[in-house]
User: Fold this.
Amino acid sequence: MPYDYDDQNIFAKILRGEIPNTTVLETEHSLAFEDIAPEAPVHTLVIPKGPYVTYDHFAAEASDAEIVDFNRAIAEVCRIKGVVPGDGQGGFRMISNAGENGVQEVPHLHVHILGGQNMGRMVPRPT
Ligand code: AMP
Assistant:
């Protein structure tokens, strides 16, 4: 089964309230919270509340309501964190790692919203 959701992953525990988080935004279907080990001045994670492993899993199987809610939550997080491009703000990078080659550590879909500084090249050039 390509999408085998492990409900013991750390973000599932955050959603169940078993582990604390610093919430930025909560909506009906999504939660945004600060990354515990920030790699930029702005580093916020946005996750759906549903049991989706990766972005492709979510995009293939989530309801329209979940997909709209998640994307609107991302937009709202960008506004809250002050990284909307233009309008005097600096823009951001959005990353969603998936699977082994994507080097995904937590197997619950999340997007990283990174900003507050120039984020450099998208990926390092192969050596
Ligand atoms: P990824 O490699 O894309 O799966 O990223 C997982 C992210 O989750 C990393 O940036 C971690 O710092 C972050 N993380 C892990 N545990 C927690 C936690 N309890 N609260 C907030 N962020 C976390």
User: Anything to note?
Assistant: The pocket of adenosine monophosphate is lined by residues 10, 19, 21, 35-37, 45, 97, 103-106 (CB under 6 Å).
